[in-house]
Amino acid sequence: MSDNKDVVRQFIISNFYVANPADLKDDTSLLDSGMVDSTGVLEVIAFLESEFGISVADNEIVPDNLDALERIVAFIERKGGQRVAK
Prior knowledge:
Elements lengths: L1 H14 L22 H15 L10 H4 L2 H10 L8
Helix pairs in contact: 1-4
């Protein structure tokens, strides 16, 4: 689980404006903090689908699944996602 969290954390830090990476806690709201906007959510989804081999349905694009590191990791695990070999 922590490996997935580390991968997602690094993606967020590398691809979005995170002024201080130490501020990105497991439960930090990506939307409320302004780190990720609505277009960014689509980038996160594309990353999750390619990195973990999952498919994200339209009805799954909700804050409960995608608004914080801990929620994203739980979502990946519920979907049975595994890192795709590159």
